[in-house]
UniProtKB/TrEMBL annotation:
This is Polyphosphate kinase 2 family protein. Pfam families: PPK2 (PF03976). It comes from Massilia forsythiae. It comes from the Bacteria. GO terms for molecular function: polyphosphate kinase activity. Belongs to the polyphosphate kinase 2 (PPK2) family. Class I subfamily.
Amino acid sequence: MKLLERFRVRGGLELREEDAGATPLRDDEGGKLRNGAIKAKERALTDELAAEAGKLQEKLYAGRQRKLLLVLQGMDTSGKDGTIRKLFSHINPMGLRATGFTAPSTRERAHDFLWRVHPHVPGSGEIAIFNRSHYEDVLVPRVAGDIDGKEVKRRLNQIRDFERMLAESGTTIMKVFLHISKDEQKKRLEERLDDPEKHWKFDPNDLVQRKHWDAYRHAYEDALRATDTDHAPWYVVPADSKTHRNLIIANLLLETMQGMKLDWPAPQADLSQVKVE
């Protein structure tokens, strides 16, 4: 079974705490490896997969026909930034764009919630990464009580239509939910407090949002179930282990790009008789 099927969201989704620490791809060679060796092995495998994806990205960029959108969602500290750094170190930056979506500005609030998103979708030959995304405009206001159930349903329907339009216009969509446990988030927040070089990452609002953990979990479950489609699938990736998280997503990314059937574009003219004087 391909990993795209193994980690795909299906009807009865439940984001259980114990699943966040799963390591389904881990091979410690019969229990012979220490934790450090396991992580080193997973990093090496991830680098190999990312390099293979980088080769396919060269064909995507050269062909300038297909497009790829990677959406990364997850609770605070689930590793969206780390995933981007690790997986895209082998990618030609000329064909890569990453956008982080924070709280909408006053100007953005004056428009429909998708208005600020559309300019950042990938153009021909590009990979676009959303660090958080249009889903924030459903999840956050729902938990805050700013929109009711009717509006939540309306926005999720609009997201389905938006993603269908992108897919019909040549965009391959891959959506990943980084599933972290509440205990692991506590550990990572404490690490940011203890390390002066990570103080810039700490946002006191993370502690406010942490109090609504269960509400966000239910909101995510509903959103993922409602918007998982064949043209814009959701994948749930256990994210308590950073190295294992990256290994899974690297596999998913490579399988997705292989499925795009990318190839080098045909030359603009017959080059068999061309001579360079």
